[in-house]
Amino acid sequence: MPAAIVDIDGTLIDTNYQHTLAWQRAFSAHGHEVPAWRVHRAIGMGGDQLVGHLIGAEHDARDGDAIRDDEAAAYARLIDEVRPLPGARDLLVALRDRDLTVVLASSAKADEVDHYLDLLDARDVVHAWTTSADVERTKPEPDLVDAALEQAGTRDAVMVGDTVWDVRAAARAGIPTITLLSGGFGEDELRAAGAAAVHDDPAALLEVLDRSSPFGALMAG
Fold first, then answer.
1. Range name among 16-20, 188-192, 206-210 with the lowest pLDDT average
2. Domain 3-15+83-219, classified CATH 3.40.50.1000, yes or no
3. In contact, 39 and 144? CB cutoff 8 Å
4. What are the residue ranges spanned by the domains of the chain?
5. Residue 136 above 90 pLDDT?
6. H or E stretch at 102
7. What is the spatial distance between Cα 95 and Cα 3, in angstroms, rounded to a whole number?
8. Residue 55 has pLDDT above 80, yes or no
9. DSSP character for 137?
10. Are 14 and 85 contacting, i.e. CB atoms less than 8 angstroms apart?
11. How far is CA 147 from CA 33, 76, 97, 132, 171, in A?
12. Can you tell me the mean pLDDT for 26-47?
């Protein structure tokens, strides 16, 4: 079966702004004052990529591990505030019911992914999911998408994401991306990155699905 590779953070669960705060606080704790807007622009990268992207390789080598540990602790204090985005679970059910293999693609820690699966009540809906344990390099590198495709057992797939980093990672893995505005990135920049379609949120994407042609409907918009 063809596959839908679906990002979690910012795509299914409204987490991007909590992650922004957690990263900003972690940077500040180690003497790096990074404006929130700059942090937000990097959300969608994993910690192995984000720290160096924002403060440079030299500072990453010196402070990166401590910053990543502090971000995890800061986010753990915020995670109970996050909620599924409108239509998130219904979208997963609809994709499955349209004969797609549904794999959730996340580089989050296993306990965070478990929390999201509980929020979505998705364990019996999706076919598989990834965590940070499945990849060495996170987005915009293609490792996460490749790991999800391996779980799906096919490269006949579409990615659903919310950031330019999702689009770039999927392109490097050789698949197109449908994007949502729920992560806070603009439609123009998502399209400029190569997004095949842009919709507001999971509920909006759900409205364009078509039983007879899942890929055709996914690409609409």
1. 206-210
2. yes
3. no
4. 3-15+83-219, 16-80
5. no
6. strand 101-105
7. 9
8. yes
9. S
10. yes
11. 34, 25, 23, 11, 14
12. 96
